[in-house]
Every structure is written in structure tokens, then in C-alpha cells.
Design brief:
Radius of gyration: 30 Å
Structural class: alpha+beta
Oligomer: single chain
Distance between the termini: 33 Å
Number of helices: 5
Length: 252
């Protein structure tokens, strides 16, 4: 009797498959755009040894893989920029002096922009030391003045060292049962097709945790064995990329 019941169960599984919802994942990654500053060739002369972007480029970095639990949610993007290792806001207009704007050569422009940076630094130092006539008396007002000076300095410095624009992106992917690859990820293109060997493999390992349940339709005769179905109640999921574990979770 047990053998016959097991056989019916196995045949049912082969014909209909285990009951389970398709697994979907949110792949989070960053687009990193390095933009060379127009005065990069004069960076060492006026700013000394520092990290400088010498060639513009676009790369991608995989940051996380998470279970997709919000059907209908739209991917979002958020852009920021950095100069060197410090994040700054992208400014539509540079706070250039009139002399820098009217400079007849790149070399002269670099000289004038560098002087403007030095003046900003000197002004900030004098404010902090209390060596200016009209120093803001209110703490909040002083903070605003210093914030504006910092903004101007970073924007002007970016003309020498360049800037990095980082945009956060999301992509929803569906796991194919039995496949060991969730997707491939390329440093130069982001998520790519599974057969695109330009991308590194993002591996997935899934263990289904099941239980037997009575099938909706049972034999009419009590003498015949009852039919059971295998239902997936949870899944242990591990996702790895370049030997780093991105996800290790139990998904109900």
C-alpha cells in the first residue's frame, strides 16, 4: 500500500511539478561615471599631489541582491557626485570669477581658478579664527556661510581632479528553477544575458523545503490509496558573486 501511494505521489509531481511561486530578486547596482576635469593637466602644479581622473570612463558595481517582495514597485535611481573620495552635489554652474571666465588660454584659466580656490580657503580659515570684520554672530548663519564656501571650493577643485557621478539602479530578475546562474554582471555593462560571457556569473543555490498535502481530487473508492502533492513551504537561498555571498536567506 505504501509503495503504491508513493508511486502515485511521484507521478503527480512529475506531471504537475511542486506547488511554488516563482522566485524574483531585485539586483541593486551602481553606474559609476568618472568625468575628467577640464584643467586636469594643471592639477599637480596648483594643487600638489592628489588623486586625479585622467580619463573619462563608465563602470558598474554590483552592490546587493534582495528578494523581490513588492510587486508593482518601480525601480528608482538616485544620482550623486564625488570629487576624489568625498561626495559633493552636482552643480549646474561653476562659481567662476570674471577673470577665469574671460581667460584667453587654458593655462591662464587654471591659474585664476587656483587663486580663487586659495582665496576661498583663506576666507574660511579667517572666519573660523575670527579674523574678519563682519563675522556671522549667529551659529546657523556661520554654518551656512561655511557650507557655501565648501561648495564653491569643491566645485572649483573638480575642474582639476575631476568628478565621479554615481547612479543607483535596480533590476528585477526571475529565478529559473534548476538553474545555477541567476544572471551575469559585467563591470562595463552592468547586468547582461546569461549567455553573455563578458559578464561574471552570479550564482544561486536554492533548497526547497516541502511538505506533503492531500490532493484536491481523491479516488472515489476508499480502497484505493490517497493521493498527495508536494508543496514548497519555504526556500533556502544563497546568492554569490566573485566568491562573496550577497544573499543568504530563508524565503517563505
Amino acid at each position: 500500500m505504501k509503495t503504491k501511494t508513493l508511486l502515485l505521489t511521484v507521478l503527480l509531481m512529475a506531471a504537475t511539478g511542486m506547488s511554488a511561486q516563482a522566485l524574483q530578486f531585485v539586483v541593486e547596482y551602481e553606474q559609476i561615471v568618472d568625468e575628467r576635469g577640464e584643467l586636469y593637466q594643471y592639477s599637480e602644479r596648483y594643487l600638489g599631489p592628489t588623486s586625479v581622473i585622467e580619463e573619462s570612463s563608465t563602470t558598474y558595481r554590483l552592490t546587493a541582491v534582495k528578494p523581490y517582495t513588492q510587486p508593482g514597485a518601480k525601480p528608482t535611481t538616485k544620482g550623486t557626485a564625488t570629487t576624489g573620495k568625498q561626495r559633493i552635489e552636482v552643480e549646474p554652474q561653476l562659481p567662476l570669477s570674471e577673470g577665469a571666465l574671460m581667460a584667453g588660454s587654458t593655462a591662464k584659466k587654471a591659474e585664476l581658478v587656483a587663486k580663487q580656490i586659495y582665496r576661498i580657503r583663506e576666507t574660511r580659515m579667517n572666519i573660523l579664527a575670527g579674523d574678519v570684520e563682519h563675522i556671522p554672530q549667529d551659529g546657523k548663519a556661520m554654518a551656512l556661510v561655511l557650507k557655501e564656501l565648501n561648495r564653491e571650493e569643491k566645485a572649483l577643485t573638480a575642474m582639476f581632479v575631476g568628478k565621479q557621478i554615481i547612479t543607483s539602479k535596480r533590476k528585477i530578475v526571475t529565478y529559473v528553477e534548476g538553474n545555477e546562474l541567476l544572471l551575469r554582471f559585467s563591470r562595463f555593462a552592468g547586468p547582461v544575458a546569461q549567455d553573455d560571457l563578458s559578464g561574471e556569473p552570479v550564482y544561486i543555490h536554492v533548497i526547497n523545503h516541502t511538505e506533503q498535502r492531500l490532493a484536491a481530487q481523491q479516488p472515489s473508492k476508499k480502497s484505493e490509496p490517497r493521493i498527495y502533492e508536494e508543496h514548497v513551504v519555504s526556500r533556502s537561498v544563497t546568492v554569490s558573486y566573485n566568491e562573496n555571498t550577497l544573499l543568504d536567506a530563508l524565503i517563505q
